Amino acid sequence: MATGIVSRALNEAGARTASTLLFAFACALYACLLVASCLKAVCHPAAIGSELTDPTRVFGHFTFVAASGVLATRLGHGPARGAAYVLLALAGVAWVVLAGCLTRLPRTAARDADGTWFLATVGLQSLVLCLTSLPPRHVLVPSALVLWWCGVLLYAMTATVLGRRLLRRPPEPARCTPAYWVAMGAVAISTLAGTQLHDHEASLPHALRGTLGLAVIVLWSWATVLIPPLLATGCWRHLHHRVPLTYEPALWCVVFPVGMYATATARVTTTLSPHAPSVAVHLLAWVAAAVWLTVQGHAVAARRPVRP
Fold first, then answer.
1. Which helix (H) or strand (E) is 205 found in, with range?
2. Which CATH code for domain 2-299?
């Protein structure tokens, strides 16, 4: 998921070779994870069932939806369009199944709400990216518009639940994990999906065309506003409270939002301000690549055996 969107960010910035290499790596990773997930479901169905009923773990499965959607969006513009339709179908079915699991969670689950809850929005908006990238667009785009507004509403609902939880029970420094960056990533992917809808405004109701452009600007602005407090929280956690900065899988929750913000910014610039300077677009893309390299390096180092 994170690797795929950083690849697209580099592509938007014109770094075609780096983008292609990273996209190939993303496809290979996706294939390996898909096989591993299928084996886990077959060999350990009880473990999967337990995760799908656990409020602290079920939202993590929406990363499969998002990863499928991000790859399908890129494949939809090339000769592998058939694979894109397959990934879209997988992502759609998975999102519906996972959404059904969410409806069975107890109300007390909101007490443990964190940034991973925004992954449901990320997954839904990734479906919008697919629908606006594949033909027949005159059929798929209206459906994408409905899903996009549902995703925006879902984000608002999730933000309300999480905001209430943070006000009532502020998390300890150790629990202020990088997962909260998904709050920004969910807005960024909503922005990106909105720009792709805007590209097909001829297929949209006339009354919604101006509203869509305004909504995209508002969403991008909100994503931008969230970045300083997220950075400040990281400094508060690691510098003030000295929580060790070691590798954890949640660090990929930083890579994805940064890559998605870079891509969304590029698309907002191209779609709504075509004459704006592209310096920021290139800078953000390479910042996303640097973050990806840093986290990937920590992941590789963490897997090295410790010598006695």
1. none
2. 1.50.10.150
